[in-house]
Design brief:
Elements: H1 4-9, H2 12-15, H3 30-45, H4 58-77, H5 79-83, H6 92-117, H7 123-131, H8 149-166, H9 175-203, H10 207-226, H11 238-243, H12 251-269, E1 279-281, E2 286-288, H13 294-304, H14 308-321, H15 323-347
Antiparallel strand pairs: 1-2
Helix pairs in contact: 4-6, 6-9, 8-9, 8-10, 8-12
The protein binds fe (ii) ion (2 copies).
Protein name: Ring-1,2-phenylacetyl-CoA epoxidase subunit PaaA
InterPro entries: Aromatic_CoA_ox/epox (IPR052703), Ferritin-like (IPR012347), Ferritin-like_SF (IPR009078), PaaA (IPR011881), PaaA_PaaC (IPR007814)
Length: about 350
């Protein structure tokens, strides 16, 4: 937990804005501030939820906006690697499953942008920050999908890693984020299972199909481990996010949990994971794994992954192509509002 002074320097005393972005009444005094701060800390300590209208330190709000926006962007960009296979799905059943999954990801993005708006963020501004590279999305979506086996491996490993990350977020201290995560996790569970089921089917197929699965696993394993972020020693914001109960576990803890869950699944599937150092450590009660190439992660985060430019270009084009839809929806909403106002006037 940051010290009282540290928090007070970044509170809404500086901006004069309340939790909903509205100006606080001028009579708000330092005593009110101190009381609001004490209430915030009590809610966190009691493991209760902070709601949009509650007072919160400005740094808590900024941390959440950054995290939730990055999460929303990841859901939206995450539609692209698998979306590329919608027109090439090998059967109607696989196409229907994949379509449902990709649509779920769009829905996840929308819940999360809404959660971000409850913190006072502006949706158009978030999109602008994404397409201009000022806000990030998960590095994993900058890798290409080379065969239909990639659809299965993304479901199994990428959605599987997302579940490890997101289940604890259902208890995140910020109410709208925690509630969005409950529904999202249910859908992620379906995503993980459809991926695993697809891989099981392919492993029971031809030698060529098995080779596609092995190749996809080899390509996605290490990037999946990187999804949990840098090692704890290089993750300076983790301690504060944990003190605020935005995060519940460190990056390394979650990564370890993912490895422990996934190794037996790989055995059941009959594939080996591309890590010669991967073995059970009876003393620790966990699997040990080999070193992760953190240079690769920072390269991909910096924009030098295999598909960064393509992902952003596609998103930018989609945003531009959707301009007329946004204009039409706004015009329609304005027309309805005007009609409702006239109606209310007549009724009054
Ligand atoms: Fe998702
Ligand atoms: Fe998913």
């Amino acid at each position: 937990m940051p010290s009282a002074e540290e928090v007070m320097t970044v509170t809404d005393r500086r901006t004069g804005h309340g939790p909903d972005g509205a100006r606080r009444p001028p009579e708000a005094t330092l005593a009110d501030e101190t009381e609001a701060q004490a209430r915030f800390e009590r809610l966190i300590a009691e493991d209760q939820r902070i709601e949009p209208r509650d007072w919160m330190p400005e740094a808590y709000r900024a941390t959440l906006i950054r995290q939730v926006a990055q999460h929303a962007h990841s859901e939206i960009i995450g539609m692209q690697p698998e979306g590329a296979w919608l027109t090439r799905a090998p059967s109607l059943r696989r196409k229907a499953i994949l379509l449902a999954k990709v649509q779920d990801e769009a829905g996840h993005g929308l819940y999360l942008y809404s959660a971000c708006e409850t913190l006072g963020a502006d949706r158009a501004d978030l999109t602008e920050k994404l397409v201009t590279g000022r806000q990030k999305y998960s590095s994993i979506f900058n890798y290409p999908t080379l065969s239909f086996a990639d659809v299965g491996v993304i479901g199994w490993l990428v959605d599987g890693a997302a579940i490890c990350n997101q289940v604890p977020l259902c208890r995140s201290s910020y109410g709208p984020y925690a509630r969005a995560m409950i529904r999202i996790c249910k859908e992620e569970s379906f995503h993980q299972r459809q991926g695993y089921e697809l891989l099981m089917t392919m492993m029971g197929g031809t030698e060529e199909q098995r080779a596609q699965v092995r190749d996809a696993v080899d390509r996605w394993w290490w990037p999946s481990l990187m999804m949990f972020g840098p090692p704890d020693a290089e993750s300076p914001n983790t301690a504060r996010s944990m003190a605020w109960r935005i995060k519940r576990h460190t990056n390394d803890e979650l990564r370890q949990r993912f490895v422990d869950i996934t190794v037996p699944q790989a055995e059941a599937l009959g594939v080996s994971l591309p890590d010669p150092d991967l073995r059970w450590n009876a003393e620790r009660g966990h699997y040990d794994h080999g070193p992760i190439d953190w240079d690769e992660l920072s390269r991909v985060i910096r924009g030098d992954g295999p598909c960064n430019a393509e992902r952003i270009a596609t998103r930018r084009a989609a945003h531009r192509d959707g301009e007329w839809v946004r204009r039409a929806a706004s015009a329609h909403a304005a027309k309805r509002a005007a009609r409702d106002a006239v109606g209310a006037g007549v009724a009054g």
